[in-house]
Specification:
Blueprint lengths: L1 E9 L11 H11 L3 E5 L5 E7 L6 H13 L4 E6 H9 L4 H6 L4 E6 L5 H8 L7 E5 L2 E5 L8 H10 L3 E5 H13 L1
């Protein structure tokens, strides 16, 4: 039986690099991989689709390879099920801040768990008003002065040494709604 999934692409359509129109992403997903009910959200690489749970193993790398074959660059793909996405939403420690200013709260979806030493390194740094929390489903970030001015947002991937991609809370909730419509 098919389940709902979200594939988050890291680093596409940023600053004119790694251009991937969402129409092309849909064609890759549907025609090359046979994914069902494919839909995208905004231009930053959010693909919601349906596929059997048995296809999960290696689906992220198959999508990465298909993008590379079609576009000439490799985009990191982070795959989460609807249930995993629900856990990301439920695990947000900044829910009051997210309700008040959803573009100031972000979730970073990580490709792997960071090392304890890397987490300790992040904890030892000063980031002004920015606050973060590493949960079992991702790293949550509250940037009251905006993510564009956040030293934490700019350095978190380098410090934790893990591939990741971030979505603001508005996008996080929009993807959750799409997952439950699929």
């Amino acid at each position: 039986m098919a389940e709902s999934w979200v594939a988050l692409l890291r680093g596409i359509n940023v600053g004119g690099k790694n251009r991937l129109p969402m129409k092309q992403l849909l064609e890759i997903a549907e025609q090359r991989l046979g994914l069902e009910d494919c839909r995208t959200y905004v231009q930053s690489g959010n693909l919601v689709f349906r596929a059997p749970a048995a296809q999960r193993d290696g689906l992220d790398t198959r999508l990465e390879s298909a993008i590379e074959a079609a576009c000439g660059f490799r985009a990191v793909v982070l795959l989460r099920s609807a249930g995993e996405w629900d856990a990301i939403v439920a695990g947000c420690p900044f829910s009051a801040e997210a309700a008040a200013e959803p573009k100031q709260v972000h979730v970073f979806v990580l490709a792997a768990a960071p090392s304890p030493d890397a987490v300790a390194d992040l904890a030892s740094r000063e980031f002004g008003d920015d606050r973060w929390h590493l949960g079992p489903h991702g790293l949550y970030l509250h940037t009251p002065n905006g993510s564009g001015r956040s030293k934490l947002a700019a350095s978190v991937e380098r410090v934790l040494q893990v591939a990741m991609t971030a979505r603001n809370w508005s996008s996080t909730l929009a993807l959750q709604a799409m997952l439950h419509q699929a």
